[in-house]
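Sample intake sheet
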Amino acid sequence: MKIGVLGSGIMGNGIAQVMAASNNQVTLVDISEEVLKRAEATIRKSLTKLSQKNPSIDPEQVLSRLNFSINKQDLQDADLVIEAITENIEAKKAVFRELDQLCNPKTILASNTSSFTIKEMSDVTERADRVCGMHFFNPVPLMDLVEISATNETSGETIQTAERLVNQMNKESILVRDTPLFVVNRLLVPMICEAIALVEDGTATPVDIDKGMKLGANHPIGPLRLADMIGLDTMLHVQESLFERTHDSKYRVPNLLREMVEKGELGKKSGKGFYQY
C-alpha cells in the first residue's frame, strides 16, 4: 500500500518505520528539510539497532521504501494517511480539513491521537466513513499493540483495512469505541497521575514507586519512568484536556507536574524528568 505519515516526531518516525518495514511505500511529511533529516537519522539508528538483534532486517532496504517530503501534495494518492502531529485538537482538525480536500476520495484518513475522539476530526471531512483512529504505542517498533477506534460512521471496510495493516506489521489490534483515551490510556493516565501525587506528598521516591509497580504488579516499567518516556509536557496536556472535559477527579493535575513542565523538566527528551538522562 501507499502510506502517508504526517508528522515526524517520536510517534510519526516510528509509524513510518514499521510501515516501511512491512513492505509498504511510505511518505513521511513534515514542515522542514532539517526536521526530516533528523527523522531519517533517527529511523536509520533504530533500524541499525534492530538489525543487530535480527539480521533479517536490512536498514537500507527499509529506508529505500521511505520518502521524506515537506510537500503535503505527495500524500494525495496515498491509500491511507496517518496523522501524527502534536496533541492539539484545532491543529488536528485543520490537518483533516486540508487532507480531505487534497487526497483521493478513496484515501483513508487515520489519527494516532491518544486523547481526542475521532469524531472531532471526521466531522470536518466529507469522508466520515473513511476516517478512523490508529493509536500506536511508544516505542512504536517494539510495542505490539495498536488501538483501532471507529465512529458510528466509520465503514467496516475502513476498519478491516486498518486491521490488515496492523497484522501486516506483526502487531495486534483491539477495536475500541470512539471515546477520549480509548482503553489503555484511560487506565494508564490516572495511574501515572497518582504516582506523581505520591512523589508530591512525599510518600515514596520515584525509584521506589517504580520498583513497587514493577515487582508488586509485574509491570515491565514503572509509571514515572514511563511518564518520562512519554514526555511530561504531553502528560500535562492530556490530563488538562481530560479534566476540562470530564471534571473527573481521577484526571486531576498534580501541582508537581505543572512545576516540572514550567522548569523544562520534560523527561527523557529534555534530559531530566523524574530521572536524569
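Comment: Strands lie at 2-6, 25-29, 66-69, 80-83, 108-111, 131-136, 145-150, 172-177. The radius of gyration is 19 Å.
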